[in-house]
Structures
1.
Amino acid sequence: MMFAVKGTFVDTPLIGAYRTRVGYAVVDSGVCLGVFSTLPIEYSNIDIKDYGNSLIIPGMSDLHLHAPQYSYCGTAMDVQLLEWLEKYTYPEEGRYSDIEYAKKGYANFVKDLKNTTTTRAVIFATIHNDATLELMKQLDEAGFVAYVGKLNMNRNAPDYYCEKSVEQGMKDTRAWIEKCNFKNVKPIITPRFTPSVTDDYMCELGKLARETGLGMQSHLNENRDEIKWVKALCPDSKHYSDTYDRYGLFGGECPTVMAHCIYCTKEEDELIKKNGVYIAHCPTSNENVLAGIAPAGYYLRNGYHIGLGSDVAGGHTLSLLDVMATSVQVSKLRSLYVDNSIRPLSMAEAFYMATVGGGSFFGKVGLFEKGYEFDAVVIDDANPDNPMEFAIEERIERLAYLGCGNIIHKFIKGA
């Protein structure tokens, strides 16, 4: 239950600043007891896992992705969000009513997720109970820590992929929650987005959140046409955020992740911060489906909870290292062409979002500190053919831009 890991540890306890320590991380029952330059005498008899000059970084937390969409990841990038859902997403997600199809699709997803730096994730499934439980089972068996949501959606979708009534949807959702008896994978309430969920259904989901203490995930202000649609569907709401908040599904007592947040009003920003809502910044998806560029730098530097999301399959990759690089790139474009009062993100800030920013949704996760759960990824980035020597920050940068490293071990809660 107790062991030490030896190597070069890199994390970001402060936003935008790497901390590098060479030494030993002592782990007991999945929790870090500290990082020491020399192994303390009281730990001299424990097992040591020596990784030499490899980088050891915190495991990364993906705050937003759609597991059933992974089958068409890397394709279907020719239209904007709302048409994209109708043309590609709903037909593919509808196929998960077939449990054998779901088993195969999710096995492929979990297999590839294991080969990334991701250790924790907040995931959308489909409306199907059995398929969602299958995804949770596979993630749990693979050792991931995750929140997974059975979708709730009862309007503006094809008949084959739309719950028939609020009553049946709630009955199915409760039945699914009762069967979520997994070690590290937990349920999360998941209304797809306001255009898919009627007010009376959202109200019932809010009651369920208060009854169970479960969190909630959804989408917010991703696309201009989507925002206009929400206003037409919910004319009495003050803004898009209010369509969730009025039912108790927007932070506070209900831990909440909202994906995108590209076009939030000042009033919405204030509500997000007040309620402690987590923002999942999804730059690869936002560029692929022509949504826009979120003001991630503003949120990060002004006390908001913000992490990164791959948003597969709007996003084209499960790799949060790739998402880090894209977040830096699009922030430069936003600063140059949209709002030069927000300086571009640095790679260290992107690293912070991928580790501490998203990890904090799960508790003490994302740092190599005493009392933090030990999620770590060991990466061999040595290149003996390159005559240059790189500083730590350059090694991280090369990982993000070039993917030039091999994952040689991944710890999740010390295992």
2.
Amino acid sequence: MGWTELIILASGLSADACAVSVTNGLCAKKITVWLTLVTAFFFGFFQCTMTILGYILGSTFTSYISKYDHIVVLILLGFIGVKTIIDSIKDQDSKIVCVRISFTTLLVQAVATSIDALAAGVSISAVSGNILTYSAVIGITTFFLCILSVLFGKKFAFVFKKRAQIAGGIILVLIGLKIFIDQQFLQ
């Protein structure tokens, strides 16, 4: 996977975290620099960590799936992408309530939105990617995009949440298809 695909993957994986960050920005009683940075750190840290954990789990089983790695990547990224799109479409709750964003709230949000990164880590192990580079790029990309998302949420309406999630889901499916096509037909 090249740098372009990696940045696109990182952006796609961060879509859920960004959507939640937009919502946090919109719903928080008061947005401070500290809250913005802590929110972005939580999401970036968990995206990075879960990618590494997925890689470790995937590496354990690589010898069993090496013949089918491109199919595994397609299935995992396709599943994540389709799930993101479906979740976005099913989420019809448009009522927004201002709340205090707590440590526990951020922790639960960060873990929940990083499950996709776990599956991506498994996918990265299947294509023998450099996990330290990949996870760092995923975490840093998520961090910066979440900063922008909190600020965006504070500035603009809730309307854009679904579009960001749908775009992220489509990006993940397309990356899965690209890797599958590259491995299946171009090697």
3.
Amino acid sequence: MGPKFAVDFLAAGARSRPDAIGLDDGERTWTYREFDARVARAAGGLRALGITDDVVALVSETTAPAVVAVHAALRAGAVLAPLSPRLTVDELRDALDVLAPGLVLVGPDAWQRVVEAGVRPARVDAIEDWLSRAPAGRVTSGPERPPLPKGSRVVIWTSGTGGRSRGVALTLANLEANIRAAAARLALGPRDRWLATLELGHIGGLMLVLRAAATSASLVVQGRFLAEKAAALIACRSITHASLVPTMLQQLIEATGNGPTQGLGCLLVGGAACPRGLIEKALGAGMPLALSYGMTETTSQATTAPPALVREKPGTVGAPLQGLDVRVAKSGEVKVRGSTVAAGYVGAELSLLDSDGWLATGDLGEMDGDGHLWVSGRVCDRIVTGGVNVDPAEVEGVLLRHHGVFDVAVVGLPDDLWGEVVAAAIVRAAGEDPSPAELGSLARACLATAKVPRRWLFLVQIPRNANGKIDRDAVRLGFPTP
């Protein structure tokens, strides 16, 4: 069993490492003693304003004041609801109408959009000054908030991998279980220096912040992810750990130019399937990849392959974390249950668990003989052509074997005869020029006829969302009408 983390994630570091660096924003640093004092002032201010069991919405890049706000809201007893600073006005309005927060803390980049969404925001960079300010930021209109699942401490607003946006409610037990299990799997500890790369509205970004504090590590924050800044920090050995989605990993590889990465201990990659070509490129550059699989509903990681396993078996996302059971149903769908599975949804009449108590993830995969999970795609992405089921990831995996293919996305296109036909969008590797005939020949040698792409498109890059997942609707729109 790992260490038991208290409600206050900063407590251990403030006690055991008061003079160690807890927070670093690139301009100044705060020891754990100073960091804890900032959070104490902000939490006290929130309590003085009566913001205790309210929802506190936070719309900000990952800055030092925003990190203080995260810890202060949890310490004050509020329910924290971090929202992406890149949501549109309509998206913000929808989220805030459902969450009905008592306080909305906003960074400068999102200020105007939050105002246009009909809310009185308060500056996140003034959070420690609440005691000398008039109350601000309460929502002035909107429907009554639906009841939160019992024990909710965090609500992450997400659309998952498709469908209407909703909140995912996480309990303190969920947060602690994920931190404990991830720390054990990746041997995390107080010598780590984490670069906060993901936004707080992303479950991976929030858990990075909480995990760093709970393991008494140092947290480096620089706002929105910039690959050049990250590469510079890595080059001077100022960073040991970071969480990335695949698109960030690609940018980081380009920014480092295969430069030295000896100071790195772990690059935790998740949020979307990592293309095989990108994995090989990162490993070739000496990067210590840890591939993970999870989602907001599992409080981030459900399985994780540490760097040694990724080097041995590139592409696997590893075994389930402590406290979780992961199985693959007869249909091929991955299912999860255990200590990190969320308490429920907010703002949507959806059941989180199936009739047998499992979270049906909507992902397809298989377990190998060692109990390591390999994720192959999404149930909703499955193509049916002439009555044959085709999983895009299987076709993508074959095409990625070609040395001339850097990235690929496979989709189904409507067809009067077959219902759908398989189509492949290809990003060529640098200096390579594979033809459709050449790629088709490879596909025919490895796949059943129905799975061989009938249409081809060559792109500069594959459209992906902010988490690095393929935007298959955008890919389909790129194919010319026959």
